[in-house]
Amino acid sequence: MLRSFSLIFESLMPDEPTLQTLFLTEKATKPMAHRHPFVLLGPAGALAALRALGFRTFSPTVDERYDRLLDGRLRLDAVLAEVERVARFNASDWQQPNLLAAVDHNWRHLHCGGLLNVMLAQANELFAMATRLGGWRERLGVGDGYIPTGLD
Q: Which of 26, 67, 136, 141 could form a disulfide with 47 if both were Cys (CB 3.0 to 4.6 A apart)?
């Protein structure tokens, strides 16, 4: 039974719109591994990036509009306001079906290979794009499945 949430502080949270960097660490996976909803204080687009990896976020239970704010100071204020609101949830608020479904999905996605499959598909897509550039094997010195390591 859910009764609370985690507040995640990512390593980077640029405060200038011109310095946006999307850099995510393992921090968001910790509450997922323990079937815990969370609010994420990080760079703009961090929740969108998690969704692109196949995870679910907690909207509409959690107001996630803060993720679209480019200005770090405004994003911080919005996250803090949402944390104050979510901290007042009662027991029934934590039992909303969409919230429970997202928590369970994230746990399964993390533990049952879903994340690995998404990451492999994205890696294959990048590899296919690189091969379409043509001549990459010659530029990298790769031939017949041999990749030089510099240790030869």
A: 67
Q: Which amino acid is at 124?
A: N
What's the pTM?
Answer: 0.74
Query: What is the distance between the alpha carbons of residues 116 and 123, in angstroms, rounded to a whole number?
Result: 10
Give the H/E segment covering residue 9. strand 6-9
Local confidence pLDDT in tens for the 152 residues of the chain: 677 899 999 887 766 655 556 677 889 899 999 999 999 998 888 999 899 989 999 999 999 999 999 888 999 999 999 999 999 999 899 999 999 999 999 999 988 888 787 877 777 777 777 777 766 566 666 555 555 555 54
Read off the amino acid at residue 133.
Answer: L
What is the distance between the alpha carbons of residues 53 and 45, in angstroms, rounded to a whole number?
13
Tell me the helices (H) and strands (E) count for the chain, helix number first.
Answer: 6, 2
